[in-house]
UniProtKB/TrEMBL annotation, chain B:
Signal peptide: none annotated. This is Cation:proton antiporter. The lineage of its organism: Archaea, Methanobacteriati, Methanobacteriota, Stenosarchaea group, Halobacteria. One of its GO terms (cellular component) is plasma membrane. InterPro entries: MrpF/PhaF-like (IPR007208). It comes from Halorubrum saccharovorum. Its main location: membrane. It holds the Pfam family MrpF_PhaF.
TrEMBL record, chain C:
It is a multi-pass membrane protein. This is Monovalent cation/H+ antiporter subunit B. The lineage of its organism: Archaea, Methanobacteriati, Methanobacteriota, Stenosarchaea group, Halobacteria. It is found in: Cell membrane. The chain crosses the membrane at residues 6-31, 38-59, 65-85, 106-125, 168-185. Its main location: membrane. It comes from Halorubrum saccharovorum. Residues 136-185 form the MrpA C-terminal/MbhE domain.
Amino acid sequence: MSDDVDDTDMTDTTTDAAADSEAGASADADSDLPPHRAAPRSGRLDSEERQGTPYTESQVIMPTVKIVAPFAFTFGLFITFHGSGSPGGGFQGGAIMAAVVFMIAFAFGIESTRDWLANTVVVALAVGGALAFAGIGLVPVALGGAFLQYDLLPIPILDPVKYGMEGVEVVGIAPIVSGVLMGLFFLLARGFNSEGSGFGNGSLGEDGSIDETGSLEEDAADAGGDR
Amino acid sequence: MSVVDAALVAGYTVGDFLLLAAAGFTVLAIGMLYRAVKGPTMQDRVLAVNVLGTNTVVILAILSAALSEPTFLDIALVYALLNFLMAIAISKFTVERGGVL
Amino acid sequence: MTVSGFASPVAAQVTAIEASLLAFVVLTALATALARDVLAAVIVFGAYSLGMAALYTFYRAPDVALTEAAISAGVTTVLLLLTLAKTTRIDHDAVFEEVNLPAAGAAGFLFAGLLLTMGDIPAIGSPDAPVWSNPDVTQWYLTETYAQTHVENTVMAVLAAFRGFDTFGEAVVVFAGGIAALIVLHREVFA
């Protein structure tokens, strides 16, 4: 059983980075490290900020992901765009495209992928998808019809019903699903924020448990007030 | 009338034999499941689930042929692509209990 | 849709693959529930999704099978692993959890009760099944989809057009799930 490591504390990346940079420096000296723990390559800007994760430099996984990821992403686009003629649709295609991002994150390091795919992109996908879906639904309402009454959509030349549905799938559901799944991935990779700097409960005290109960009571009060 | 519907032996069509082959692959998958559940180390389980995924791709492709539904091959493709993701995720996780994630 | 398997002179092959797939799914489900090590449970759960996708494909529900494939293989396993990476590991000697007998008894009674209703359920693929033969819902969708929406995939037409408002609600639920994860984890940004 690979039950050797108890170091599950992922939050203190600074100490890990320091320890691993030391390990990399000593690897040059006596080189008695295990083979998978290669020294960080010099000359790369991000090599020290990657919390010394030597496994992300895997010579098998990285080229394979470089080859597979474009095909998988294209296939996700195909599933999304071709949902009207074959099995699939926005939900499945969005999930596949999010899975491609997971794949890239596993190969090149989650923190690097987090920097590459900024929070703006993730939020823009999720919020933009929801707004686009609502917008496509509300245009017929503005024109005097019902919500999502596709045949009133002002689409010239093309068939408004078919392309309205395609629009909902492509610019509505797929971005929501892929954005939210990517966001969940990055959120879970970072973990629980025990410092209490989350939504508006940072001033209740320095103890996390006090924050917890305070925010819960606030939420309960809000919920009761809404009802 | 496609190849799948052609009768081979005693009224059995090609599709019937393909379904039988898919059933055989499923029985093999049950055998591989033993390694995934028991498997003393995590590496055994990773390999087992990877083989199971490949096995499933074959089963899905055979089902697609046997049921004369070419679009079912999309599912096999999705599994082939994402099984790779599952394999690298679990294998990287087992290196240092998620320390390298 | 062709039904070559069902129209064959002997239905034994259909039963064979159904039986083997169902056995695989039930075994993986039991192993997931009983596995002592959580990582083993996650891995076996991935195997469970493989069997379910094949079963859905065999029952000619490719959209459901595709969703199962994309979500289970691509997303659920990865998210569970990331969550596990935040936990500590307890060493176990036993492979399986000890079965809680009262809980197993309750589950057994529920299973037996559900089994009693099996006699009234129409056979799989039966043309007389109410879910297939009613003229107002299923047959109406199958005959009217192309005429009204000009798309070939009836599932997508039902989701995006006939039940578009429900789908909008589902999309908003997915969005709200992301927001809920932010709140639960005390974060303000996703990435």
